Amino acid sequence: MKKTLFVLLLLVSVSATHAQWSITPEAGFTTVKRTGASDWKPGAKIGLGVEYDFSNRFALQSGLYYASQGYSANGPTILYSPENGGQYFEDDRDQPSKQNRNFLQLPVMAKFSWGVSEDARISFAAGPYVALGSEPRLAYWNTGLPHPSDENHVRKSPDYHDLSWGASIALGVEVKQLAVKLGYDISLRPEGPEDYQDANYHTFSLTVGYKFKLGK
Fold this sequence. Notes:
14 strands; elongated; 1 helix; Porin; two-stranded antiparallel sheet; disordered N terminus
């Protein structure tokens, strides 16, 4: 028993010797595609990454990020119109139907890194994330009955889940304190109660940050 406690204390002390906190303000852009939609949509991603190094090669990454998400798709699109007495109608114009939504995203990722020179490292990270989203804003062309028009309507849709989750992977390059990261996120929760598509959003991101090391 004493030997076991001694080994555990030794491992904790070694981990504490190598452990180091760091924070990384990041900013960049994204491109997002919804399953079934026709176009990739540009967006933005900014946030503050937090990292705890257990050793020279292994760390735990987290942080808080703002990310925009949405899609743009040309008709025909089946849309629900509460303005038209709760009817469904088909938008068959050559005009895009759009959705925009904003998320606060919290990832928890295991990061593995390797030194390629004295001042440069490459890394791979993977793990889950949770996200809190705003109500989506929907834009569409009204061609439905009983009052068809050429007006481009914009409205909010409350019938969407606020909480989302998914999985993330990231490839990174760090040169001294400059950090460049290429990431991929896939959302794994349906957007609403009538959405049967789990993996509905695919997001690629490219961000640049500056790493501030704290502690030892």
